Amino acid sequence: MSDRIFAAIWLVLCGIGLIIGWGIHSEYSYEPLGPRPFPIAIILLMTFCALLLLFRKPEHIHWPEPKVLRRLLLLVISLIFYAGTFEWLGFPLATTLLVISIALLFNATLPAAIISGVILGISLFFAFDRLLDVTLPIGSLFK
User: Fold this and answer.
1) To the nearest whole number, what is the mean pLDDT of the chain?
2) Dihedral angle over CA of 106, 83, 76, 93, nearest 10
3) What are 39-72's pLDDT values in tens digits?
4) Predicted TM-score (pTM) of this structure
5) How far separated are the first and last CA of the chain, in Å rounded?
6) Beta-carbon contacts of residue 33 (< 8 Å; ≥ 6 apart)
7) Pairwise CA distance, residues 8 & 5, whole Å
């Protein structure tokens, strides 16, 4: 039953997304189709998946153990912390802390989590900032 409730809520959100996506316009034409088709195509795909979920044969659902649910909650808290501190801490430090927390959630040792966090935080910053020319915040702490 919970999957049907989720599918119904998701269909409502997809409807809202289609209304918002249909209103996307660009002042200048940089491609023949414009910016509208990509979001609408993604939302239509999500609508199709939600309909499949809504009309499929019901199955007995086994909820995960409380330990797994606690880890999922910690993961969500980590992602919210990352989003909230992204500009203040900057991409390298915020990404390092996120990778460390996720690695620890997946039972990595503390040294391995720290090493992988530092390497990913710095290398991803330089890959996006220098190679791909994507402007990322360095953090207001370091300015």
Assistant:
1) 88
2) 20
3) 889 999 999 999 998 888 877 778 789 999 999 9
4) 0.63
5) 52
6) none
7) 5
